[in-house]
Amino acid sequence: MIVAIDGPAAAGKGTLARRLAAHFGFAYLETGLLYRAVGARVLAAGGDPADPDAATRAATTLAPADLERSDLRDEAVGEAASHVAAIPAVRAALLAFQRDFALHPPGGAAGAVLDGRDIGTVVCPAAAVKLFVTASLDVRAERRYRELAERGERPDRAAVIADMRRRDARDSSRGAAPLTAAPDAHLLDTSNLSIETAFAHAKSIISAHLR
Ligand code: C5P
């Protein structure tokens, strides 16, 4: 069984996906890390993440060790990821790995949960369950602000909101696999939901498909 979870940054999809995977014994793939790893490699090589040649080279030669980099969650890497993610050849290079993970989950798990921007629309259009997780810009920016502060960074609130707005716009307006809800996705707005409530809701949707 494939569970596709899409949505903008800091909507809560990662927390939800991880908990659902643990609950149902499914494998979990955070696809944003693939794009982050590509972005991080381009930055480390001194390249421009928006340069199709540099980004495609990084994507086609991606190795498992690149997913272990300690800088993947840095803001600069997230920004670079959203640039490389707009390049069709980069997306094409990462597609087979994601589909293979979904169809043959590691460890022989009975299912897979993938989260990202285009899982329900492009990577796994036939997924049994699709969730589109959103929250208002203010709520998501506040979550990101706290996350950065907890990591010991000293974020600027206005800059966090501005970055998030810019990243949303780039992810939603790109020609290749833009961020959008699949027509058959269940919408889950977590602006005013606790993690517990969002989890209970998603769990019942998946359970209904398992019956
Ligand atoms: O989810 P996360 O914020 O880590 O993703 C970083 C960037 O990677 C996103 O802003 C988006 O541009 C890109 N991404 C994507 N498709 C996915 C997952 C992430 O384009 N399935």
Helix percentage: 40-55%
Shape: globular
Proportion of residues in extended strands: 5-15%
By secondary-structure content and strand pairing, the structural class works out as alpha/beta
Remind me, CATH topology? Answer: Rossmann fold
Number of domains: 1
**Low-confidence region ranges:** none
Question: Which CATH top level class fits?
Answer: Alpha Beta
Give a description of the structure.
It is a single chain. This protein has 211 residues and is of the alpha/beta class. It has one domain: Rossmann fold (3-Layer(aba) Sandwich), CATH 3.40.50.300. Strands 2-3-1-4-5 form a five-stranded parallel sheet, sandwiched between helices. Helix 2 crosses helix 3 and helix 3 runs parallel beside helix 5. The N and C termini lie close together (12 Å). The model has no long low-confidence stretch (mean pLDDT 95). The site of cytidine-5'-monophosphate (C5P) has 14 residues, from helix 2, helix 4 and helix 8.
